[in-house]
Amino acid sequence: MAEISSVGHPPSSVDRQILALAVPALGALVAEPLFVLVDSAVVGHLGTAPLAGLALASTLLVTVVGLCVFLAYATTAAVSRRLGAGDRSGAMQVGMDGMWLALGVGVVLGAATWAAAPWLVSALGAHGEVAHQAVTYLRWSAPGLPGMLLVLASTGALRGLQDTRTPLGVATAGAAVNAVLNVVLVYGAHLGIAGSGLGTALTQLAMGAVLAAVVVRGARNAGARISPHAAGLWANARAGAPLFVRTLSLRAAILITVWVATGLGAVALAGHQIVNAVWGLAAFALDALAIAAQALVGHALGAADVARTRAVLRRTLQWGVGAGAVLGVVVGGASWGYVRLFTPDPAVRHAAVVALVVAAVTMPMAGWVFVLDGVLIGAGDGRFLAWAGVVTLVVYVPFALAVRAWAPPGAVGLVWLWAAFAGVFMLARAVTTGWRARGSAWMVTGA
């Protein structure tokens, strides 16, 4: 703490900046899952087959968009660094290039998803009416992928400009519009599950257009170029490639965990679904702190203020560990109560509760990991994060395989699985990112 005060950055000042960025970011993060919830609620009343089809199709969409999250992260880091260096025009130019890249990738992925929809659904083991419903939703929602990725890139640019309020407003309005469109198209226009996919696609395209318009206006005011530029597109793609590898390693770990849970039986798999849902909700709060860390660290390094970078690192880590501890108390302490909302099965409840206690114990470490991820992303240290992601996956896989091979089914097996994932996997991430943060190689200053 003395270090923060000695360089003229009192804790209260840093805290205000963290909260000013993290609170709206948390709101935007929470607003996004409402799309899936609304789709599920509307489609669920159409019958079991449409709901099952939606589950498959939405999983595929979330995976595609999740792998492209580098469009937000890389843009945030680059824009905040340019802004910190006093080059607002350059910052806006990076933001524009990121959006053009997102638009191009979105068009390609949208077309590919539409064409490959039957094969993708079949690969997940669906058949008959469920497969038909899944393909229908996927094809009607695929045209919205350019909008979804444009939302990522423009949100990344605005975060780099330390504006998390605009994405919050657009995400909140989008969730409301999506709810209305789903009801109108599914039931009013009698389009069935196709109406749900179309409503989501139209909403995402509108959100992307609104956020892009905000960035374009800022670029014009700053004198930045609006049209696409090959060098800028390539620079954004090159900066995002390591973050894509990092995200791929995380997704692989999650998929392996689900595979292991499946092998532990129906009770363990159902319990895992509950634990994973709660873990994901808690992760939103920690992600919001990581987003604040990205923007503040990128800005400080762009301004060549190493002392401030260290101050932000120290304070955001304190916030992350503290928030993780509070979340751990809530997640573990209240687990007996809220798991009843998920299932009436006593065996599944028991499995979920004991696994949630394990997850709760590791929450402070998760806060540390999430914040350090944000710090290193904000510093543009994607290459290290890519290698660290591969290393942590290699460390985790033998433990996951051991659980699959030797752990008993049911609650005990699920406890061992979450000890491996929330314990071993997160510890490996904590050690690698913590080791990196202790040094200075990641603190490259200037634009």
From TrEMBL:
<dbReference type="Pfam" id="PF01554">
    <property type="entry name" value="MatE"/>
</dbReference>
<feature type="transmembrane region" description="Helical">
    <location>
        <begin position="50"/>
        <end position="79"/>
    </location>
</feature>
<dbReference type="GO" id="GO:0015297">
    <property type="term" value="F:antiporter activity"/>
</dbReference>
<feature type="transmembrane region" description="Helical">
    <location>
        <begin position="18"/>
        <end position="38"/>
    </location>
</feature>
<dbReference type="InterPro" id="IPR044644">
    <property type="entry name" value="DinF-like"/>
</dbReference>
<comment type="similarity">
    <text>Belongs to the multi antimicrobial extrusion (MATE) (TC 2.A.66.1) family.</text>
</comment>
<keyword id="KW-1133">Transmembrane helix</keyword>
<feature type="transmembrane region" description="Helical">
    <location>
        <begin position="248"/>
        <end position="271"/>
    </location>
</feature>
<protein>
    <submittedName>
        <fullName>MATE family efflux transporter</fullName>
    </submittedName>
</protein>
<keyword id="KW-0812">Transmembrane</keyword>
<dbReference type="InterPro" id="IPR048279">
    <property type="entry name" value="MdtK-like"/>
</dbReference>
<feature type="transmembrane region" description="Helical">
    <location>
        <begin position="277"/>
        <end position="298"/>
    </location>
</feature>
<feature type="transmembrane region" description="Helical">
    <location>
        <begin position="168"/>
        <end position="187"/>
    </location>
</feature>
<feature type="transmembrane region" description="Helical">
    <location>
        <begin position="413"/>
        <end position="431"/>
    </location>
</feature>
<feature type="transmembrane region" description="Helical">
    <location>
        <begin position="140"/>
        <end position="161"/>
    </location>
</feature>
<dbReference type="GO" id="GO:0005886">
    <property type="term" value="C:plasma membrane"/>
</dbReference>
<feature type="transmembrane region" description="Helical">
    <location>
        <begin position="384"/>
        <end position="407"/>
    </location>
</feature>
<feature type="transmembrane region" description="Helical">
    <location>
        <begin position="193"/>
        <end position="216"/>
    </location>
</feature>
<dbReference type="InterPro" id="IPR002528">
    <property type="entry name" value="MATE_fam"/>
</dbReference>
<feature type="transmembrane region" description="Helical">
    <location>
        <begin position="351"/>
        <end position="372"/>
    </location>
</feature>
<feature type="transmembrane region" description="Helical">
    <location>
        <begin position="100"/>
        <end position="120"/>
    </location>
</feature>
<dbReference type="GO" id="GO:0042910">
    <property type="term" value="F:xenobiotic transmembrane transporter activity"/>
</dbReference>
<keyword id="KW-1003">Cell membrane</keyword>
<feature type="transmembrane region" description="Helical">
    <location>
        <begin position="319"/>
        <end position="339"/>
    </location>
</feature>
<keyword id="KW-0472">Membrane</keyword>
<keyword id="KW-0813">Transport</keyword>
